Inverse folding.
């Protein structure tokens, strides 16, 4: 599934990615909780006086972030195993679909927010490397039929090459990042991948910095979804793309009934058996039910300033991919 709108070619040049990498070298703070605080713009909004939901429970806004943090701190070591168990491995196909719809080109810079264990970033880097290889093979085949004069002219008129793509995994939870960083080392991902402790509601990055922003199965856990969407808009370059993969609303009544039964009766049991944590997975199931439906979330993305917003239902609406552009 090709992306309906390509990021402007000039945004994919190597210069911005090198600048991004330079800015991030001092921001890889996986092991330092004090650094995480220094990277964030702090503000006070009287959150202790307001309430929000933590699953089906109502809690003061000021407590939600801490409680969500503890949930993911608790499940970090078994998070990937539980994803396979809960979805019967289908989450891998959902994430592959996100990349095919995104269709990133070589030289693109990605911010993967709430990206803890790195699944989206790994797929992104693999995808752009595959694209680069395909382009190189196509160019080599084309050159085989050119005359010497045509080859000389093509070198003379060639534009500067595209830089290497880079991905930044940003997550508020240090334990999730540690797991992801260990996976990256085992899989051989190098300097084209950075790990940053940061809050989706107060991203520690400059404006107009990234070509693509992704958040997969994370936005429903933030306290202020509108704030996270505004931050996504801020850090994207003009022409940049916002993409969210999240559990959504099932429209088919029969599938919805089966899905509810599986979610509430099986997933917490799996959480207890595999991760030793019933309560965390009970919260995760409840948080899915509290998340807005596809049309409502689409409207929220548009309100944050994005254009050409659309969504793609997967597995009957069990999950949806939302996409929008910053113009």
């Amino acid at each position: 599934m090709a992306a309906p709108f390509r990021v402007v070619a000039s945004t994919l040049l190597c210069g911005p990615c090198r600048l991004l990498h330079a800015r991030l070298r001092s921001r890889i703070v996986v092991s330092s909780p004090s650094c995480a605080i220094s990277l964030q713009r702090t503000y006070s909004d009287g959150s202790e006086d307001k309430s929000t939901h933590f699953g089906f429970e109502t809690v003061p806004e000021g407590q939600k972030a801490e409680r969500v943090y503890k949930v993911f701190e608790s499940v970090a070591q078994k998070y990937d195993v539980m994803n396979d168990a809960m979805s019967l491995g289908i989450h891998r196909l959902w994430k592959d679909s996100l990349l095919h719809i995104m269709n990133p080109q070589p030289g693109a810079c990605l911010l993967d927010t709430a990206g803890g264990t790195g699944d989206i970033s790994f797929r992104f880097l693999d995808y752009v490397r595959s694209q680069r290889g395909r382009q190189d093979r196509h160019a080599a085949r084309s050159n085989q039929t050119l005359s010497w004069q045509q080859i000389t002219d093509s070198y003379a008129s060639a534009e500067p090459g595209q830089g290497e793509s880079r991905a930044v995994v940003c997550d508020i939870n240090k334990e999730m990042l540690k797991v992801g960083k260990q996976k990256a080392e085992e899989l051989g991902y190098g300097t084209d991948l950075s790990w940053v402790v940061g809050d989706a509601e107060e991203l520690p990055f400059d404006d107009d910095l990234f070509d693509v922003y992704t958040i997969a199965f994370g936005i429903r856990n933030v306290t202020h979804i509108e704030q996270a969407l505004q931050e996504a808009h801020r850090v994207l370059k003009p022409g940049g793309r916002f993409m969210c993969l999240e559990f959504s609303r099932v429209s088919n009544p029969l599938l919805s009934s089966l899905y509810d039964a599986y979610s509430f009766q099986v997933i917490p049991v799996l959480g207890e058996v595999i991760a030793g944590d019933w309560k965390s997975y009970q919260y995760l199931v409840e948080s899915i039910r509290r998340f807005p439906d596809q049309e409502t979330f689409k409207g929220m993305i548009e309100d944050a300033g994005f254009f050409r917003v659309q969504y793609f239902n997967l597995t009957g609406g069990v999950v949806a991919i939302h996409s929008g552009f910053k113009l």
Observations:
- The mean pLDDT is 80.
- The two ends are 22 Å apart (CA to CA).
- The chain is about 50% helix and 20% strand.
